[in-house]
Amino acid sequence: MRARPALLPLAAAVVVAGCGGGDATTAAAPAARAATTARAAAPAPRRPRATPAAPSAPPRSWDATCPTPTPSALGCRAVRGRVLAIESHDPDGDGDLHVVAYGGGVTAPGITIFDVRASLRPRRDPRPGQIVTGAGPVFPGSHRQRQIQVDVFRVWRPRR
After folding, report:
1. Per-10-residue mean pLDDT, the chain, length 160
2. Residue 74 and residue 120 in one domain
3. CA of 133: how far to CAs of 29, 40, 41, 74, 87, in Å?
């Protein structure tokens, strides 16, 4: 039983000696170690990448405006936004296009749904990230959400 208390100071000495973590040269020269670490952490110079130019934003004159007075109790709204999602194939089969865009706040804070009837549908559906604008009366949708039944709808496609 007396052998165990004698081992305790020896074990403590081994643990303390093992925590040094280096030899005498690195412990004596902390400035040299800091300089080496600073050089290793310096970022490598970046090579310029060939990136396409950012598409130009459409001018404010391009934005849609409400063309006529509306019978909607919610009024007419004109919104410009960036496409988040589209529904090309309408479940009810009437051929209209639904565009969910970030901007305007008609449907939810910062979100607007455009309901584009078949006669106003663009030749190519907008893609996520493109800028669209639309104006028209605000009516409730099939899930009682507010959406713009557009009278004017445009998709910004910058020239390449």
Report:
1. 50 45 50 54 62 62 74 80 89 84 91 91 90 91 89 82
2. yes
3. 65, 51, 47, 19, 17
